[in-house]
Amino acid sequence: METELKLQVPPAQLDRIRQHPMLAEHAPDGAHEHQLVDTYYDTAAHDLWKQGLTLRVRESGGAWIQTVKTAAPTSPGLHERGEWECALPDATPQPGLLARQIKQAALSQALANAEARELVPIFRNLTRRTTWSLRWPNGDEVECALDAGRIESGGNNTEIAELELEIKHGSSTHLFELALALHADIPLRMSNDSKAARGFAMLERPATQPVKAQAVELGRHATLEDTFQAIGLNCLRQMEANVPGVLDQNIESLHQMRVGLRRLRALVDMFEELAPLPAEIAEGLDWLAAALGATRDWDVLADSTLDQVHGIDPAALRQAARARADKLHKELLQSLHSSRFTQVLLSVNGWLHARQWRTEGKLPKRSSLAERASKACVPLLRKADKRLSRRIADFDGKEPEQRHRIRIAAKKARYGAEFFRDLLPAKEVKHYVAQLSDLQDRLGLLNDFAVADKLLPELQKGTGELGRQAAYARGYLAATAEADNGELAASLKAVVKLRLPR
């Protein structure tokens, strides 16, 4: 199993990486150069790739090595992949040799089936690889590999300039410290695009798809710290998996990336006393939330809120709002390509993977993080319950800000229940989540109206038709929100009676 982090390097900065003093400091054996020719094989229909496998034959120094890997997850950050390899007498692939080594029946059978069909070369990589074996006094070891070259696929070429950091021994602490130190000097970008993925994408680029939150699988005997880390990485994966779609300016990908970030911030808030987030990471997440939120607000206005306005044809208004949203989508690309975005992702990944909330690598005595999660999660969920009840009790039915605070509290209570779903009575938690989701939907629509009231004045300037439509829409949405107060009161009353099962 390989555990690695991939980083894209600006091609002009490759020599600066090779000469970086931090690599020399931790590599007692120095750097080693290799010339690699990797040929990827598959059936003509790409059967292995479709089943999440890659088959590669590498030639280096007159020897051939055959390697099979499982596909990487759909997000950047630290990830694990299955990897098996064996020597070959020549460049002809023999997947059956590895099929016998792999215990997973489905993977073994996929390779055996591939050998029974005609394998063809799909593409190849020509790479100059520079490697360092980095060691630290505590015994941690990280392999650093800098690749420069090209991928040749279907008559097309694409440049390779990437850094791979792989844990050989120990924890991930030094791996992320190294990545952040290099990034401080040389602008890097996190990536999950393996060379195989890039090669297949050159043949047929699939459309990016939004990635929704996946259920968190928790063991009943896991500690609260284990579950905190697992949930945090689950939220981070949702965020990162949607980055390609946001870069393609996919509206739903932006929404799902923002959901992943909201889930992560809700989790951090829930655990603020047990695992306080460093201020610089919190500031980075706030910065990212603001960048995503501003764009999403105009998306919602253009594609959803204005559909609630009746009595006029808001086509011109919708078109103007969509133009503002599209402009912000383009500006958001600059944020995602920025050095700060890479720093935020590296910092959060490092904090979660290395459990950096620990003091000197240990938990405080009697910390509830060391307790079984099935018991220790109860006070956290009860706290979220009480906060929601207090905010509902303080609501006077008038201030939009109060509604928004209730919505946030309901969202955090719901996320908490979803996070720990595996440790709670299934039927009761399903009802609890459903009730809170209904309240969220109602409050979310009212919040969209309130946001529209702030955005529409930007389109209301002047005395033309657009200004008149904007003024009408503001009045219509304000009246609709006012008329909803009775139904909202009934929903709030029902939620106050809810109690998450213990």
Structure, described:
The chain has 502 residues and is an alpha+beta fold. The protein folds into two domains: 2-206, Hypothetical Protein Pfu-838710-001, CATH 2.40.320; 228-359 and 367-496, CHAD domain. It has 18 helices and ten strands. It has helices at residues 14-18, 21-26, 47-50, 95-99, 105-116, 173-185, 195-203, 224-241, 243-247, 251-270, 279-303, 315-336, 339-353, 373-393, 400-419, 426-455, 465-483, 485-496, and strands at 2-8, 31-42, 53-60, 63-70, 79-81, 83-88, 120-135, 141-153, 156-169, 189-191. Strands 1, 2, 3, 4, 5, 6, 7, 8, 9 and 10 form a ten-stranded antiparallel β-sheet that branches. Strand 3 (53-60) and strand 4 form a beta hairpin. Helix 6 runs antiparallel to helix 13 and helix 10 packs antiparallel against helix 11. The mean pLDDT is 91.
Distance between the termini: 38 Å
Mean pLDDT, all residues: 91
Kindly report the CATH topology of the largest domain. Answer: CHAD domain
Q: Biggest β-sheet: count, sense, barrel?
A: 10 strands, antiparallel
Radius of gyration: 26 Å
**CATH class of the largest domain, please?**
Mainly Alpha
Spell out the CATH superfamily of the largest domain.
CHAD domain
Number of DSSP strands?
A: 10
Which stretches are low in confidence, meaning pLDDT under 50 for 5 or more residues running?
none
Overall, the morphology is globular
Indicate the percent of residues in helices. Answer: 40-55%
Structure class: alpha+beta
- Total number of helical segments? 18
InterPro entries: CHAD_dom, CHAD_dom_sf, CYTH-like_dom_sf, CYTH_domain, YgiF
Domain CHAD: 221-497
Domain CYTH: 1-206
Organism: Massilia jejuensis
